[in-house]
């Protein structure tokens, strides 16, 4: 530890602290512009200049390390004068056009101008005449406002590790741009916008829509993928305007991905349903909420009386909060009297490695998942391990992924070849034996894997036997994929069987959309006497319903989600669109069926503590649950990955821009990726006579569908990839995740 004085206040800090950090500890404010706590010190702007008594040279507080007995002054007359000049010089490059700039009210330069009391700039401003760049779908770039602080370049390099942007040109011509000033081809995560201290990089989804002082801010958790990012929902009235980041809170350190930051717009969609519907004479017709609930309850009663309670099944979605899923389970077991509720989520794997475990690990294996696409923040942890911790990284996936630049080695090939490679890994054979040795020798090895492929569970359970120290991270797909399992959801295989053999007559489907889920899309729901569906949208499953009730999204409800790390975090209602939550629907149904269930999340939370042993001591404000195992069960060694006979291997691709079927309703995401496209390699495209955008027919398992082609250079020859969660692709994947398919040019 080091002791020093800052403006007369004595403070003791670790010896690797900077003067800025020491000042923060002493409660002394030093203005900054280019500094950001998430980034390495840079020292570009000179706004944080300080004086040390006895040293004639001024120093930058953000880059200078502390030394014993320093006597630092932060606000002398000389410093005030120089700081004012520094800001004046910054304003030469930055035209003052605050009334029209979207950053007005939350601009560090504007704040600094007030702070130093600058009313007039002595130097002539450079004329602002560079055209504003709109080539990035989510980011507006106005280079004339750039103060060259480098925060955007550094976050894209140090945190996201994409290096999509950098300083280009020299001297007065220096600006932020891409190599050869090409259109931005990046992850669209918007991290660069979030750190830009002025209005040079702006959020196009929010542009000119509102002003920060109008917006109410609510802390919550992103409702899309299983990463569990902590976010700030910015609302005015019943509209959601922007997604803000909270670097000081949450395991994501303020980082978000494109879908979390820009995809929230489905919440505001005018395509959302506002009225319940009951099917009459074959058509879904508007009904009021009570009428819809009574219809469901009466039908449940009559089916139960005729066929027994087991003829009624409850299915929950990972969009439900823990509290809602817990209530749905009570509805199933205690009110209706069936065995319990089901979920289309894997049950054999539980969370083990946290992001911190991954970031600090000394060897990482990523098994059969494109993690930076599927779970971007989990992907950032993997990148941090490889980049900051220099952990050797091994990636097993059919095609090359964004981890390519960091990976020690990538094992690519057809899905059969990747499975053969992973088999050699766990059996310690071939080139993969060396990887097993690295994992065995590591002190803190981790493996990230896809729990949705049953075959993959064999690999991870075998690998765990070989490397007992290995910590596993199951890349769960949706916001509460883990929580609904914790709340007691049963494996849905039995549900499928019950619907197929017609022993199940009624299905109460809370938020789930099986019609677009892999392995479920071919299930006919026609034999059901009652299909009741809740969903914010008229989903593919809702269209088949006997009764449909529109419900709230994650932004409109209270409760908690459990992330893929096993971290339980509180979800807060940020706005109200006048729609019921699933908890309210469950409570209303229970009441009509003669039971009584609370719908208030606080009350339900107390019941969860009492009745769910894992959550007895749970800290719902970010605590991590301690699970009894990471993988459990006897798994069979997979013979080969894909079924079928075609010439190409088809597998599901993960899309950074989409998460399940909700984000398809986000207009801005749809501008970039609005329909499913079949990815193939340039070599295959040439052999098939296909170009980007051409129509191609895909035949698998007796089903043929037509898609547009996207020629992608990272694809392996002989492979094809389609995204999941679209109605046509779900049908192609209805019999499983890997198929041999035939491809043919259409038209
Ligand atoms: S959006 Fe993300 S990946 Fe793209 S330039 Fe900004 S920080 Fe880099
Ligand atoms: S664009 Fe913004 S963050 Fe990037 S260097 Fe310019 S002012 Fe700084
Ligand atoms: S979609 Fe996932 S990674 Fe992206 S912001 Fe939301 S929780 Fe985070
Ligand atoms: S904040 Fe220290 S030099 Fe910019």
Automatic annotation (TrEMBL):
Per UniProt, residues of the 4Fe-4S His(Cys)3-ligated-type domain are 78-117
Give the CC-aspect GO terms: membrane
Q: From which source organism is this entry?
A: Geovibrio thiophilus
CDD domains assigned: fer2 (cd00207), MopB_CT (cd02775)
PANTHER family, A to Z: NADH-QUINONE OXIDOREDUCTASE SUBUNIT G, RESPIRATORY NITRATE REDUCTASE
Q: What keywords are assigned to this protein?
A: 2Fe-2S, 4Fe-4S, Iron, Iron-sulfur, Membrane, Metal-binding, NAD, Quinone, Repeat, Translocase, Ubiquinone
Q: Quick one: a GO biological-process term for this protein? A: ATP synthesis coupled electron transport
Q: What is this protein called?
A: 4Fe-4S dicluster domain-containing protein
Q: Where is this gene product found?
A: Membrane
- Its biological function? NDH-1 shuttles electrons from NADH, via FMN and iron-sulfur (Fe-S) centers, to quinones in the respiratory chain. The immediate electron acceptor for the enzyme in this species is believed to be ubiquinone. Couples the redox reaction to proton translocation (for every two electrons transferred, four hydrogen ions are translocated across the cytoplasmic membrane), and thus conserves the redox energy in a proton gradient.
Task: Please report the stretch or stretches of sequence annotated as the 4Fe-4S Mo/W bis-MGD-type domain.
Answer: 215-271
Record PROSITE patterns:
2FE2S_FER_2, 4FE4S_FER_1, 4FE4S_FER_2, 4FE4S_HC3, 4FE4S_MOW_BIS_MGD, COMPLEX1_75K_2
Segment forming the signal sequence:
none
GO molecular function list: 2 iron, 2 sulfur cluster binding; 4 iron, 4 sulfur cluster binding; metal ion binding; molybdopterin cofactor binding; NADH dehydrogenase (ubiquinone) activity; NADH dehydrogenase activity; quinone binding
Give all residue intervals belonging to the 2Fe-2S ferredoxin-type domain: 1-78
Q: Main location per UniProt?
A: membrane
- The 4Fe-4S ferredoxin-type domain, residue ranges: 137-165, 176-206
Q: Which family does it belong to?
A: Belongs to the complex I 75 kDa subunit family.
Kindly list the cofactors needed: [4Fe-4S] cluster; [2Fe-2S] cluster
């Amino acid at each position: 530890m080091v002791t020093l004085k800052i403006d007369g206040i004595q403070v003791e800090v670790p010896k690797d602290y900077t003067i800025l950090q020491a000042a923060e500890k002493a409660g002394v404010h030093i203005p900054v512009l280019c500094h950001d706590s998430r980034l390495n010190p840079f020292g570009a702007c000179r706004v944080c200049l300080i004086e040390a008594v006895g040293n004639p040279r001024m120093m930058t507080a953000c880059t200078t390390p502390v030394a014993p007995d320093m006597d630092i002054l932060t606000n002398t007359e000389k410093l005030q004068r120089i700081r004012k000049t520094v800001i004046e010089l910054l304003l030469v490059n930055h035209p003052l056009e605050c009334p029209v700039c979207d950053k007005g009210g939350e601009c560090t330069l504007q704040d600094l101008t007030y702070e130093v009391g600058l009313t007039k700039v002595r130097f002539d401003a450079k004329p602002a005449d560079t055209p504003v760049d709109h080539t990035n779908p989510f980011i507006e770039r106005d280079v004339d406002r750039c103060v060259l602080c480098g925060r955007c370049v550094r976050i894209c390099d140090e945190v996201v590790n994409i290096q999509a942007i950098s300083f280009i040109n020299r001297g007065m011509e220096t600006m932020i741009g891409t190599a050869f000033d090409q259109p931005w081809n990046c992850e669209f995560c918007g991290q660069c916008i979030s750190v830009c201290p002025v209005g040079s990089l702006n959020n196009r989804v929010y542009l000119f829509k509102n002003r920060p002082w109008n917006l109410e801010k609510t802390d919550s958790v992103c409702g899309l993928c299983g990463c569990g990012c902590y976010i700030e929902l910015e609302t005015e009235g019943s509209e959601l305007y922007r997604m803000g980041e909270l670097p000081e809170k949450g395991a994501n350190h303020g980082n978000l991905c494109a879908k979390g930051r820009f995809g929230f717009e489905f919440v505001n969609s005018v395509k959302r349903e506002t009225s319940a519907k009951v099917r009459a004479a074959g058509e879904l017709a508007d009904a009021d909420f009570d009428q819809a609930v009574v219809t469901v309850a009466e039908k449940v009663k009559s089916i139960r009386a005729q066929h027994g309670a087991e003829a009624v099944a409850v299915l929950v979605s990972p969009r439900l909060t823990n509290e809602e899923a817990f209530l749905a389970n009570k509805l199933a077991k205690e009110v209706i009297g069936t065995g319990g509720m089901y979920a289309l989520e894997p049950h054999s794997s539980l969370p083990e490695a946290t992001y911190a475990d991954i970031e600090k690990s000394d060897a990482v294996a990523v098994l059969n998942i494109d993690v930076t696409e599927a779970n971007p923040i989990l992907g950032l942890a993997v990148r941090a391990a490889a980049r900051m911790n220099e952990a050797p990284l091994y990636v097993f996936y059919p095609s090359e992924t964004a981890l390519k630049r960091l990976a020690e080695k990538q094992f690519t090939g057809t899905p059969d070849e990747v499975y053969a490679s992973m088999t050699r890994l766990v059996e310690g054979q071939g080139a993969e034996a060396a990887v097993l040795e690295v994992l065995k020798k590591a002190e803190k090895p981790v493996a990230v894997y896809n729990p949705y492929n049953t075959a993959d569970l064999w690999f991870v359970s075998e690998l765990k036997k070989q490397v007992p120290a290995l910590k596993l991270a199951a890349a769960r797909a949706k916001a509460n994929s883990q929580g609904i399992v914790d709340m007691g959801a049963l494996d849905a295989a039995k549900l499928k069987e019950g619907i197929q053999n017609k022993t199940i007559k009624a299905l109460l489907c809370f938020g789930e959309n099986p019609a677009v889920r892999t392995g479920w899309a071919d299930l006919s729901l026609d034999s059901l006497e009652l299909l009741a569906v809740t969903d914010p949208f008229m989903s593919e499953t809702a269209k088949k319903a006997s009764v449909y009730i529109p419900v709230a999204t994650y932004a409109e409800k209270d409760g908690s989600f459990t992330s893929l790390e096993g971290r339980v975090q509180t979800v807060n209602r940020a706005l109200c669109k006048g729609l019921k939550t699933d908890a309210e629907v469950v409570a209303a149904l229970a009441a009509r069926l003669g039971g009584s269930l609370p719908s208030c999340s606080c009350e339900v939370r107390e019941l969860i503590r009492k009745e769910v042993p894992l959550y007895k001591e749970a800290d719902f404000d970010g605590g991590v649950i301690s699970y009894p195992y990471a993988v459990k069960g006897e798994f069979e060694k997979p013979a080969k990955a894909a079924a079928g006979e075609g010439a190409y291997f088809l597998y599901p691709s993960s899309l950074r821009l989409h998460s399940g079927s909700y984000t398809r309703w986000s207009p801005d995401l749809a501008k970039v990726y609005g329909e499913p496209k079949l990815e193939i390699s340039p070599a295959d495209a040439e052999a098939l006579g296909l170009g980007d955008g051409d129509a191609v027919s895909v035949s698998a398992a007796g089903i043929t569908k037509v898609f547009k082609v996207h020629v992608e250079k990272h694809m392996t020859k002989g492979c094809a990839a389609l995204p999941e969660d679209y109605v046509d692709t779900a049908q192609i994947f209805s019999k499983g995740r890997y198929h041999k398919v035939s491809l043919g040019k259409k038209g």
